[in-house]
Amino acid sequence: MAINFKLAIAVVCLAALLGCSTSNLQVAEVGSYHVGGRAVTLSGLPEKELLFTPGAPPLKLNPNGDFEVEALYTRYTLLANPKSRYPLLLWHGGGLSGVTWETKPDGAPGWENYFLRAGYSVYVSDAVERGRASWARYPEIFKSEPFFRPKKEAWELFRIGDTDSYNTAPAQRTALPGTQFPVAAFDQFAKQSIPRWGTNDPATQAAYDAYVDKVCPCVIVVHSQGGNFAFNSASKYPDKVRALVAVETSGSPNPDTFDFARVKGVPMLWVWGDNLGKFPFWGRIAAQQEKFRGNLIAAGGIGDRIVLPDVGIKGNTHMLMMDRNSDQVAGLIDQWLAKQGLKK
Amino acid sequence: MAINFKLAIAVVCLAALLGCSTSNLQVAEVGSYHVGGRAVTLSGLPEKELLFTPGAPPLKLNPNGDFEVEALYTRYTLLANPKSRYPLLLWHGGGLSGVTWETKPDGAPGWENYFLRAGYSVYVSDAVERGRASWARYPEIFKSEPFFRPKKEAWELFRIGDTDSYNTAPAQRTALPGTQFPVAAFDQFAKQSIPRWGTNDPATQAAYDAYVDKVCPCVIVVHSQGGNFAFNSASKYPDKVRALVAVETSGSPNPDTFDFARVKGVPMLWVWGDNLGKFPFWGRIAAQQEKFRGNLIAAGGIGDRIVLPDVGIKGNTHMLMMDRNSDQVAGLIDQWLAKQGLKK
Questions:
Q1: Which CATH number is A27-34+72-133+145-339 given?
Q2: Residues 32 through 61 of chain A touching chain B, CB cutoff 8 Å
Q3: Are A303 and A294 in contact (CB under 8 A)?
Q4: Does B27-40+72-136+149-339 carry CATH code 1.10.3210.10?
Q5: Which tens digits make up the pLDDT trace of B283-292?
Q6: Where along chain A do its domains lie?
Q7: What is the ipTM of this complex?
Q8: Residue of A nearest to B29 (CA)
Q9: What confidence tens digit (pLDDT) does each residue in A285-341 have?
Q10: How far apart are CA A185 and CA A174, in angstroms?
Q11: Which of A31, A35, A88 is closest to A217 using CA atoms?
Q12: CB pair distance less than 8 Å for B199 and A52
């Protein structure tokens, strides 16, 4: 007995020396790749004068040639012994990139780190036109001009503060009472903004579809603008999407025409933050999402919903994963996925 | 003796059960953040008509407001028990992003995965204007137009094929004899291209300096266009940059005016692929880098060099980390860093 005890101690000590305490992630591989997209050739464009050094004469460059465009980028972290049956794909929202999932404005690690610790292999993607997915010349390839989200729009649209509560001076901004957003780090959050186009939805959908086809079976957690793409991909590959978590999704296919029978085998969960009722814009979005969810249930599917203030969790913004209590919210999602039998 | 042997076997078996076989990475945390940059306010710009759905009337959008611009993005993977004394910072080259280090065109994991396995905590960044660092409206914030690298330029400039050996049809392209580049995956590599500007060098340098100040002490491995930024940051923080590996660097500060005494305590290694002499452009760059290296040595610094064909490793392109034998090249860098006393 005494010998066994000593053996156990020795094993634990040696295990610690080997660096395999349970607080570490056991990672098999990290990497990334691009999925989808197409080749295009530009021709007949005039040479362009490009400025390299302000004040110096511009250089002439020929903009014609072959390009690869409209691919999606994804980065993966594969666990050696995942506790989930399928990897988790994290899809960002509008005007943002995969950074949404990697970090919080106060510098703490984001939901990617949380879900890795919870036992999921995790993929974090940048949609067409965003971040490492890259963007293409317009109007020749992308059909319109990009637009850039001002901080005021993010502050108010993401329900951090009320309409007209934004001010250029950080100290003069009035956040909603009891907000969970780390308000002092709002400008740090604004660095995550990425220009977007209004005309790339078909290319973005095609790349997401190719992504699901390549990587899944999987679970998708999607935020905001990404919802529409995720519902459509689930409808295209209902056997490959084993669950879909719609975090503050702002869009979906038309609930009056969508074929819910195709996705009734894909359990879905909607997660909402606080203060939806204060903003008519969000009230309309939530109502549309409720119609979609209701039709899914009516077709025999699982369409669950967590409205955080209804379960006593107050002050969450549209950027749930950035909020100070975001790990608590992630925990609810992890629990729901376990309830669907998606963990070992 | 027999008992000790049994104990050792038991420990190894239990360690395997705990999932800490030496083939797994022991990761303490993954995350990312933006560093540097500045706040700008745009005002007085007219409303813009933006197209969301081709065919439908455009929407009006006000482009004025506050923005965060010119930050650098970095992602980190921190090992629980690194074998290196300092983390490794991987800096990409021109027209590319941090993806350079994450993957190879054939889909295999890249140098980031290699160096993590070799015991380094690794940071992979996107410079100002690239990837997840994001880009800003021009000409109001960025002072010129972006440019896009055609595939022909990458094929020839990166020494995969000779001048005029590129063809739109993959089967009609003629690579240099014995190239190590995975030629069949060239179009997949081209998806990594990111638009660039010629006028952002001061902002890029400022962000890199802020990055080194925040994250280091560290070792920097830098590719191509990034070289100039890394040499300058090392000069600004010579006590924080513990070594600098210049992989096919295309630029450096002026060797006639650079203060080499400041960086003589920063060991530096230049790594070059094959076929430099076939391209006058690369011959000139290599000569300039040799002048820089010579002046460093003359000032009492360590300026080592590996020209791969000189040590019997042939066929490497400008994109060493994409080549089929790239792990062999990474191994030489790892050995050199160990020789500088930078591993435990």
A1: 3.40.50.1820
A2: 32-34, 37, 39, 41, 48, 50-54, 59, 61
A3: yes
A4: no
A5: 999 999 999 9
A6: 27-34+72-133+145-339
A7: 0.93
A8: A113
A9: 999 999 999 999 999 999 999 999 999 999 999 999 999 999 999 999 999 999 999
A10: 14
A11: A88
A12: yes
